[in-house]
UniProtKB/TrEMBL annotation:
Protein name (database record): ATP-binding protein
Pfam families xrefs: AAA_14, DUF4143
GO MF annotation terms: ATP binding
Residue stretches making up the AAA domain: 18-152
Length: 437
């Protein structure tokens, strides 16, 4: 399995004086596998310690956090003699022992010669009532579900993946329909590693029902986590009911013509004060991607952020497809899959790809009078890059053309089911190039 975040882990290792590293993300996106593979390929030794349901380690971190006390205990628990420089210490599921996060501060301040990588479920870190996060004492990286390129590599389609990375559009155009077929597979399967493994391990005799079962189980497990983390708090600031209501509303929110999040679509008569905390928790837990509106599509985008308007996407396109009840027969209908639920899957895919590429959720813009909208905007090399997403092969994009002329963007992308074409500052790109160009 190939995960592009590996390059950033290697860069962390090679940076002099680096702090302990927190690798976070939603449950089941592959954090543990990536951490262990990083250790296996980059270090002489790996001291792996899981804190999940580990009473011994829980007791260890409840006591004195002196590194001189922790190192021998971690060596015994992992069965590995820990020595500086050549050993990677992995504290897996660090949110299960909140003071283990505090221990990262101790490693940074008193024993920087040890390389420590902690993995944590963003849900647990966001919702755990334990110790405060060691702000400023750790480096942080976030792992997202697998991208389309990573999916291709996992399925043994290295040639197609390398072709897309090469950006050789003359050859890409020749292979367009084949790549689009794989993109349809990805919209159904998504990027959760277990679902990808279920697809890749059985292709071409794919059991799509088994993939859907994996996705439904993951979605159910997330719901169970809502109860686990909220009920554990003596004075919950958000209820499990509110979290479930927002989570369950994601497909219907995105399937509307205007996918701006509406509280009334969660529950009749719903208002911001009823659900804003639940939304924040889902975002903090990396289960939802909040795309905020900007009032003006100019840099710096953060300065024009509208705190009252946003769109809420799921963490993964495959999970969204499962929550929407998408049938596998949609894979046989050509481009119709991209238009399902008013293009919700297509927008979700592009949002997910851009977020993974830039390690930051993009913005969107809409006119005050609702007469125009840019699906996504992000900043790159000091410039705002607007993005228009078309669900089919129709490429009309009045808002993008108008915005480009008005603001003079040097680069803009229009993604659709058609082949690449280069017509000045607006680049027509096939959907599968989102997050690659």
């Amino acid at each position: 399995m190939k995960r592009f975040l590996m390059d950033r882990l290697v860069a962390w290792k090679n940076t002099p004086g680096h702090k302990p590293l927190m690798l976070e993300g939603a449950r089941q996106v592959g954090k543990t596998w990536l951490a262990r593979e990083f250790g296996r390929t980059q270090y002489a030794k790996v001291a792996y310690v899981s804190l999940f349901d580990n009473a011994t380690m829980g007791s260890l971190f409840e006591g004195n956090l002196s590194v001189d006390r922790l190192i021998p205990a971690l060596s015994i628990e992992s069965g590995t003699r820990i020595t500086p420089q050549d050993t990677l210490i992995i504290l897996d599921e660090v949110q299960e022992a909140p003071r283990a996060m505090t221990a990262l501060k101790m490693f940074n301040e008193t024993a920087p010669e040890y390389d420590v990588l902690a993995t944590g479920s963003a849900l647990g870190i966001a919702m755990h009532p334990g110790s405060a996060f060691p702000v400023g004492k750790v480096n942080r990286l976030k792992l997202y579900p697998m991208t389309f390129l990573e999916f291709l590599y996992a399925c043994g389609q290295d040639g197609l993946a390398e072709l897309l990375e090469s950006k050789d559009f003359a050859l890409i155009d020749v292979m367009h329909e084949r790549i689009m077929a794989w993109l349809r597979y990805f919209l159904y399967t998504g990027g959760m590693p277990e679902a990808v493994s279920a697809f890749a391990g059985t292709f071409p005799n794919v059991d799509f029902a088994a993939i859907r079962q994996v996705q439904e189980t993951l979605a159910a497990d997330y719901r169970d986590d809502f109860s686990k983390h909220t009920d554990a708090q003596p004075r919950p600031v958000v209820s499990t009911l509110r979290l479930n209501q927002v989570w369950d509303s994601l497909p219907s929110q995105l399937a509307r013509e205007n996918s701006k999040f509406l509280y009334g679509a969660v529950r009749e008569g719903g208002r911001g004060k009823d659900f804003e905390v639940a939304i924040q928790w889902l975002v903090d837990a990396s289960l939802a991607l909040r795309v905020r509106r900007v009032s003006t599509p100019l840099k710096p985008l953060a300065a024009y952020e509208d705190g009252n308007a946003f769109k809420l996407y799921c963490l993964d396109v495959g999970l969204l497809a499962a929550m929407s009840g998408l049938d596998a027969h949609a894979l046989l209908d050509g481009d119709e899959l991209f238009r399902e639920f008013k293009g919700a899957l297509t927008e979700q895919f592009v949002c997910q790809q851009l977020t993974a590429q830039h390690a930051k959720v993009p913005y969107y813009w809409s006119a005050e009078n609702s007469s125009g909208e840019l699906d996504f905007l992000y900043e790159q090399d000091g410039q705002v890059v607007p993005v228009e997403v078309k669900a089919g092969r129709h490429k009309q994009a009045k808002s993008l053309i108008y915005a480009q002329k008005k603001h003079g963007y040097p680069l803009a992308y229009r993604y659709s089911a058609t082949r690449h074409s280069d017509n000045g500052p607006i680049k027509d790109m096939p959907l599968y190039m989102a997050g690659i160009v």
